[in-house]
Design brief:
Radius of gyration: 40 Å
Order of helices and strands: HH
Structural class: mainly alpha
Distance between the termini: 114 Å
Shape: elongated
Strand content: under 5%
Helix content: over 70%
Largest sheet: none
Number of helices: 2
Amino acid sequence: MEANRGQNGIQLLLTAEQEAQHIVNGAKNEKMARLKQAKEEAAKEVAEFRAQMESEFQRKVAESSGDSGANVKRLEKETESKIEHLKTEASRIGKDVVQMLLKHVTTVRN
């Protein structure tokens, strides 16, 4: 009777171990399936984002290159305006700069 009880206990433990192994394997398979699904979704999102950025880039390129003559004229006007601004600033502070340079050149330090 004791041998049967011990045998049944061992058999019960083996059965429980097999069931536990099936549960663990099932959980691993579900985890792998979820990871695969997440990877596919991430790849899809990346592809959509890349397409969106490429579309936006192409739109900006088309906008900027479509009016290249107008852009050149606009840039020339901006450049001339900046040059004139620099000339006026230079003439406005030129005397002060010369005075400052003369002061530093003629001042003797020990």
